[in-house]
Amino acid sequence: MATLVLGAVGTVLGGPIGGAIGALAGRALDQAVLFKPKGRRGPRLQDLQVQTSTYGTQIPKIFGAMRVAGTVIWATDLQETSNRSGGGKGQPSVTTYSYSASFAVALSAREVSSVGRIWADGNLLRGAAGDFKTELGAFRLHKGGEDQAVDPLIAAAEGIGVTPAHRGMAYAVFEDLALADYGNRIPSLTFEIFADDAPVTTGAMASALTAGVVGGAGGSVGGYAASGDDVAAALQPLVEAQGLVLRDALLDVPEEDGVVARGMLAARINGAAQVPVKAGRDPAGDVPLRLAVRHYDPARDYQAGVQTAVRPGVGRTLQSVEMPAAVAAGEAKALAAARLAEAWSGRSRLELLCGWEALAVRPGSVVTVEGVAGLWRVVSLEWEAMGVTLTLRGWRRGPVVAGAASSGSVVREPDAPHGATRLMIADLPGLGDGAAVAPSVVVAAAGASAGWKRAALFTVEPGSGTAVSMGRTAPAATMGTVVTAPGAGSAALFDLAGFVDVQLVSPGASLAGADDAALLRGANLCLLGRELIQFGAVSVIGPGLFRLRHLLRGRCGTEWAMAGHIAGENFLMLEAERLATVPSSAAQPGMLCRVIGIGIGDAVPAEAEVTVSGEALVPLSPVHLSVESDGAGGVTVRWVRRSRAGSAWSDGVEVPLGEEAERYRVELLDGADVVRSAEVGVPEWTYDAAMIAADGAVGSLSVAVRQVGTYGLGRVAVVAL
Predict the structure, then answer these.
(1) Neighbours of 148 (CB within 10 A)
(2) How distant, in Å, are the alpha carbons of 152, 256, 374, 376, 615 from that of 398?
(3) Which residue, among 463, 464, 470, has the nearest Cα to 443 in the 3D structure?
(4) DSSP class of residue 32?
(5) Which element (helix H / strand E) includes 458?
(6) Helix H segments across 160-301?
(7) Cβ atoms 443, 424 nearer than 8 A
(8) Element (H, E) at 516
(9) DSSP designation for 77
(10) pTM
(11) What's the pLDDT tens digit per position in 181-192?
(12) For residues 240 and 232, is the Cβ–Cβ distance under 8 A?
């Protein structure tokens, strides 16, 4: 700008010579004021990745497509929601709390076109299709137009008369964003901004930032966030990385556009003999051996990338050029190669003493010098003692071949829709070492889409149909359906011949085997229908389809459920961290327990229900039933009790009772008819000769034994007489 203005003024006042003097002064002012090379702080790579909320923080002007963090400019207090669960028989109630917040984030001090993906703490919050991965009340983007209206939520909270519309500034408003996934705090957000529909040139950005004064073409970038103490600081990283020059108030790429003729050289100044041409060369070691350009790579979701150019020869200096702009890896490597080639060519230097005619030579120009080989870039022009001194540096000739470049691999979260929720509910037997005092009813959830995360869970009260919140689901469970059901088996041995095929619900879910020692410690416990099994070997037989072998059947007293398996029944891995427990108030024995789940991608709620039998409260069936003669014409039936207070096999010790008292219900059966019943307090019963004579039973007799538990009768064990 100063070059144009002062050059024009000089021409008016002093003719061509005055114009040349004015232009020289203007260039000096441009370099010293508008584009002073030192002492300014422009944007850096890390500046765009850290979200701030500090008063006075500069809001950058976004060009092209860029990923920026923005600045929180308004927020509400955290909104707390409490959820009370439990409080049934013998259990304390548990109150959990969830939090949400509403806030606004300033994105650009220039109007934007749209916002694409959004990341929260590095994880995808909003996908490319505009779908959110976490619960959210509403999302609004104010693009920054000059007719922009105030946001209704901010106006309602602060007052319509005092709420600014922030015209000329683009900002996003989040309403009731659930914070459970982010440690109950507002996460650090980064946004994919689209401010322009195509890549932008540095010249166009300079023109926009200076109201049209500075323009030109320059190099192009996919995106840039301009900020700094002034225009020069805002553009300095691009100017340095792209090797641009300011010529007559135009930022552009240096081109061959002049000749320094021998007639310009001055052999004498004011009668004194001069040496008009002085040449020299810097040591090769002064040139970087490697030059790296650090940039934002769109192929890496705008994460920082580095591309390096290497020259042969001596030296060990590494130079790094920061370019906080969105450019492809190949472009960054080409820039690195070009800057390194310029540094190598720039080792050669010339100092020319010229007459006043040289005032027309523009610093930044690439020229040829008559009688001197090669191209030369005019670095500076100094007028002193009635002579003009030109300082030149060698300039590369022709394009630079950079070679292939790669963005490298990037690990990114799948950008898949949330999808529908699948629920599974199970009434489990006791799995721990203590005796349960309430049913153990759990809910598992997963989604058929890789983008599924969690859903809100509700129990439905019988009769009224009222939905009561029980919080959110646990992380996605490993669950599916049985494709090929297992046959008969034994609860006392490893099943080395049988197998079961299961189809998992969630894409990407998998199963892994375990050795025998791990199995005996409880590994790979799963629910198959109503039977608990463990598996040691797994093979993949199709997409999401697995064959399970090396089985342990009827675990935790579920041998009664080994028969009757069918294709299509439920399969569920029992991983505590992936299961949600239904409150005991909604899961009492005999009650129909109904649970619904609503996730982001659910058009209708997912449902699951079970009639609660209280498997965790039911004593296990006795084992090792035997029949012996009592020596007096009768028989004695003996058995060994099991305890729901500990299902592990412990040698040499008595298992804990796990009930208020030791009692058993014994029934003598003639087929399906009960001939005689009794209750005993020890694990044996004698059917003496007198009973036999009195009953006169002649059919197929058997004895059924059940343990009488604190909460009801246990599972039956039968032995034939």
Answers:
(1) 18
(2) 58, 11, 11, 13, 82
(3) 470
(4) I
(5) strand 455-460
(6) 202-209, 231-242
(7) yes
(8) helix 516-520
(9) P
(10) 0.72
(11) 888 888 999 999
(12) no
